[in-house]
Every structure is written in C-alpha cells, then in structure tokens.
Request: fold
Amino acid sequence: MHLYILDTGALLSQWTLKNPHFNFMTTQSVIDEIQNRPSKNRVQNLLSTDRLRIESPDADAIEMTEQKAREVGDYHVLSSEDLELVSLALWQKQLGHDVSVVSSDLAVLNTAAALGLSTLDPKRRMREEITWVLKCPGCRNEEPEGAINLECPVCGTIMRRKPKRKKKIKDSK
Reply:
C-alpha cells in the first residue's frame, strides 16, 4: 500500500478528492493549520472513512530530517510543521512503507528529495533538487548555513540565499 504524506496545501486543495483510492497520512500540526470550513469538512470526511491517518514521527527521524535540511540549506525556511511532516515520511519509509510527500512547498519537497523520499508536487513547479548557500552580495563571502537575514561575518552586508548546486529531478509519481 502506498501512503501519501500530505502537507496543509494538499489538504486545502481538492487534490484528495481527485485521488479517491489513495491512502493519506499527515501530522496533527498540519491538521491544526486547517481553518476554513470546506477543508475541515474534507479532512473530517477523510478521517471518518479511514483514508487519512494522523501520526507523529519518532525522534530519530526528526533529527535526521533536521540534519539533512541543514545540509541542503532549507532548515531556516522550513517551519516546525514542515520538518515534522518530512520526518513522518522518513519514519514511514524506515518502517518499510512506500511513501510520497505531497506538497507545493519547494523547501519541503527539496528536503524530502534529499532524504531519498518520493515527492509529488501537484502544481508541478519543482524541477531541481537544490543545495543552498548564503552568499554576501557585497564581498562574495559564502556561508554554508545560517538564518535568513544573517549579516556577513566579513563585511556586515545581509547575506542572500543562492543555489550552490542543482540536480535535475524526474517526476516521482
């Protein structure tokens, strides 16, 4: 059985309705982000028909996801909900399930792909896996990791997030 790990965007959209035979999983923090009535009703319907399960990842999967997000430069643009969702997918894969992360968030998809997870972008915007670096527009200094709006340790200019390495990807599903 293939599991589709859903982020908030996938639950807000009609994507689940277009795929009536799929099995879904998400985290409680994603469910908590759903505010509008139609989406809440859709989620309730998925839960009541056992097509959607709510799970939490284990601590090791969270640690591995955070480490990989730092390596590829996505850590500081991912929310705690995003990290938990990717961790859930990693944990399910470690348990032997066939999983795909469904999201339109490019940082979520990038981190998931870097972890070797199958990804599905309903909007089909993700074309490359990217390793990010912070680069100073003033002195060209590069830092492998850091918070957005980090001042350059060399000249004090605000550093910008730039792609260091790109790798073309194929559609997973």
Q: What stands out?
A: The mean pLDDT is 88. The beta strands are 2-6, 23-26, 52-54, 98-102, 118-120, 128-135, 142-143, 160-168.
